[in-house]
Fold this sequence. Notes:
InterPro entries: 4Fe4S_Fe-S-bd, 4Fe4S_Fe_S_CS, Cyt_c_oxidase_cbb3_FixG, Electron_Trans/Redox, FixG_C, Ig-like_fold. By secondary structure, the protein is of the alpha+beta class. 43% of the residues lie in helices and 19% in strands. The protein contains 16 helices and 16 strands. Strand 15 and strand 16 form a beta hairpin. Helix 2 runs antiparallel to helix 15 and helix 4 packs across helix 8.
Amino acid sequence: MEKIPVVQEHTPTFAKDGKFHVRLTEGRFQNLRRLTTWPMIALFFGLVWVQIDGTPWLLFSFEQRRIILFGNALSWHDLPLLAGVMIAGACLLFFMAVAWGRVWCGFACPQSIWTWLFIRIEDFTEGRANKRNKQDKAGLTAELLLRRSAKHLLWWLLSLATAITFTGYFIPVRDIVDGFITLGLSPALWGWLLIMTALTYANAGLVREKICLHACPYSRFQGVMFDRDTRTVTYDAQRGEPRAAKRGKSSNSGDCVDCGICVQVCPTGIDIRNGLQAACIDCGACIDACDTVMDSIGKPAGLIRFASETELAHEAPRFLRPRLIGYGAAIVCASAAVLYGFTATSSLLVEIRRDRNALFIQLDEDTFCNLYHVKVESFSDSDPVINVAITGDHTYEVFGPAQLEMQESNATWVPYRICATDIESPRSELVFSFNGQTLTTSKATTFLVPARQ
């Protein structure tokens, strides 16, 4: 297979000291991006506040050792299910990359979403890109200082809201907000919020495109995943070259008027006309900008568009390829395994350990006792009390609590002494049964006595 050339630019040619201002544009791809990103933003900031009967709808609680996933309580033993979800998501990401390039980065990646939010704030406080460029050249003034102060203040407030919301998926967000207002948070939580706020501020406000180019691993292996049939943001050089300004166009000139708007609207500052590049996030901003220019000069749209090398070569494109079929099969298998796993989850987990100091205790010639340590973990608030019963091949006398208060004994080891008389077999089955109002489970173990001579 012919390798796709990847051009990588570290600094835009028009940038001053590595700094450039992104020009906002409108168009169908920017509208599509908003249709995908705004619901995701609303879900991120909104789901953390949803409660059902006083219980968060979505919470990964380290303190309670439970996962509340859309109202369903799971234990930490169910974490492999979340790993399965991540595997299915990764396969979907690879499937989309092979088919349509880095559309995840341009339309759904949190780094890109927050970068666009910060650019919007910058555009609102300091003005549009051309105005910001002029202000940089003119130097710092009192008005510019006030505008920049407002910009950074809004950046910090958005970063703080992001940090609190993200942390709210691990600690109830209402507790965080109450502690934040009353200054009652622990030093560790204060430090965590400060770090998360600073990272969000730096990533979306200061570093921006450098994350996509230098820190994101996806940009590094995208060139390996692409093939000739991958549809990605592409400049049609056959149609656009040779470039010429509108006033100097001749009959031999291409459609590109070399206006540079496609570069000015790019959030990573690349020139898509130089070919496929690692920093391109396939957001479609250059497509919308170029289509606007083409419409203004009476040329057909699509000089920059989502296209594959096969399409540019006027060959028939292929969608069903071995790599796509493989990723699709992996998505189906991983999703099926996760769905099956969710049907087999339990809200009541039990562990039983025998006492390691003695296999058995002999009280008299015919009476023997075994010592056990039992831990019961309930991941549901519907059964505050769990009843404990013992059944087996013989009649057993139980020394231990018949009921366990889940709020008090949850995830703690409770000792039990089980005694029996006149047992002939050295190994007998013994079953611990645990029953609540809605939860029930049982676990078998063995009862040991010395072998008869």
